[in-house]
Design goal:
The chain is an alpha/beta fold. A six-stranded parallel sheet has the order 7-6-5-8-9-10, with helices on one face. A four-stranded antiparallel sheet has the order 2-3-1-4, sandwiched between helices. α4 packs across α11, α5 runs antiparallel to α6 and α6 packs antiparallel against α11. The longest helix has 29 residues. It is elongated and about 105 Å long. It starts with a strand and ends with a helix.
Length: about 400
């Protein structure tokens, strides 16, 4: 069985294209269930974040048109002929290696960012809950997540808690913009919204967070921040210096027309930061006087410093070691069918040799004894072979299996 993947990310496509392949949690569930039904697909996991969308499958097919599967799920016209160039597909070792490096944050726009690890864990968890992840993908993702955690504790110390919000704040400061004392509105109180509010607060800004009215009493916001009902956001926006939106809602949170009305007569310079994919803010608001609009592609930290390069090399060495462990497990797993066959053949041989001894039992009991003997002997033989699998190297075990397969039971 083979591992294959395909995906689109920030290195190949801008946010305008990526948002076409962004999946909400419910959309990802339906997509995985549909893909799992396709011929040749034994298991699948769909990962969808602000910067990437990737599909992993386990299959017996030598090559599958995974982009085509995704285009079908998303109802992309003409089979996606005009956008296939933006998709990168990998298989086998390269697919597994990509996931390991991705989980460690080495494939992120912000090198070493911490959120991707949780997103990888959540993706396989969701696939498991809806019975779409098979054993091969479960083990692959488990090994990748474990390796990612190890990289964060042993290699990438510089950017342990760095996020897109931190990168945006650093980008503004590098332009000479002072955040301290600025009035900020953060639209969204999910994970990214809370990080944004906390980051701006720590920079000395005065932060207000939107909360949906029906959740106002149960939603926690970062300490030191104020709250406002989401429906009142346009009332507060004209008084703000920075408006940041980071929701998972498919609907726009800031539109040009109501924004223009709210800002009428108040043309103070404002910065709008849209960190959502699909985007939260209508692109045309950038045409309004005094409005500067940034999206998630506007800020980047590629970790090009000499210290980060050193840490990347150290992380790569660690990841290659952990990848080898997974590949060894996968190779040994391919011998399991042979182990079962050997156990079955040994059981039949033992039952045949018991033939005369069974004659002393009543005829009605012989079949039950034969079945019990076959079951027990097969389990014992398989237990012995699996113990050898755990102790021997792959080549030694494969040679043993070859000999056993040739035995005349």
């Amino acid at each position: 069985m083979d591992i294959q993947m395909t995906g689109i990310d920030h290195s190949m496509a801008g946010v305008r294209l990526r948002e076409q392949f962004s999946f909400t949690a419910s959309q990802a569930e339906r997509a995985m269930q549909e893909i799992k039904k396709q011929p040749g697909v034994k298991g699948c996991v769909l990962l969808s974040t602000c910067n990437r969308m990737e599909l992993y499958v386990s299959t017996k097919e030598s090559s599958m048109d995974l982009p085509g599967l995704l285009f079908s799920v998303r109802s992309v016209p003409c089979g996606g002929a005009d956008i296939r160039q933006y998709f990168k597909s990998r298989r086998g070792v390269e697919a597994a290696r990509h996931l390991f490096y991705l989980s460690a944050g080495l494939k992120s726009r912000i090198l070493g960012e911490d959120q991707i690890l949780a997103q990888v864990k959540e993706a396989v968890k969701k696939a498991r809950e809806i019975y779409c992840a098979d054993t091969l993908l479960e083990v692959l993702f488990r090994h990748a997540v474990t390796a990612g955690k190890e990289v964060r504790t042993k290699a990438l110390s510089v950017h342990a808690d760095y996020s897109a919000v931190h990168c945006a704040a650093d980008g503004l400061k590098s332009q000479g913009y002072v955040l301290a004392g600025k009035r900020c509105l953060v639209i969204g109180n999910g994970t990214m919204g809370k990080i944004a509010a906390g980051t701006l607060r720590d920079e000395g800004a005065l932060v207000t967070v939107t909360v949906r009215q029906y959740r106002s009493g149960i939603v926690e916001i970062p300490k030191g921040c104020s709250r406002i009902d989401y429906g009142d956001r346009y009332r507060l926006i004209p008084e703000c210096d920075i408006i940041l939106s980071a929701t998972v809602s498919p609907n726009l949170t800031v539109r040009k027309e109501p924004l223009a009305q709210a800002r009428s007569g108040r043309q103070r310079p404002q910065i709008y930061i849209d960190l959502a994919v699909p985007r939260d803010m209508e692109e045309d608001i950038a045409q309004l006087e005094g409005v500067t609009l940034y999206d998630i592609d506007s800020f980047q930290n590629d970790g090009s410093s000499s210290e980060m390069q050193r840490q990347k090399e150290q992380a790569g060495q660690l990841l290659e070691t952990r990848l080898s462990e997974f590949l060894e497990w996968q190779e040994c797993r391919e011998l399991v069918p042979g182990i079962h066959r050997t156990g079955e053949r040994a059981a039949k041989d033992i039952c045949w040799r018991m033939g005369r001894g069974l004659m002393q039992f009543p005829e009605g009991e012989r079949e039950a004894i034969r079945a019990l003997a076959a079951e027990c002997s097969q389990k014992v033989v398989e237990k012995m072979l699996f113990a050898l699998r755990d102790e021997l190297g792959r080549e030694e075990l494969a040679r043993c299996m070859q000999v056993w397969e040739q035995m005349d039971f």
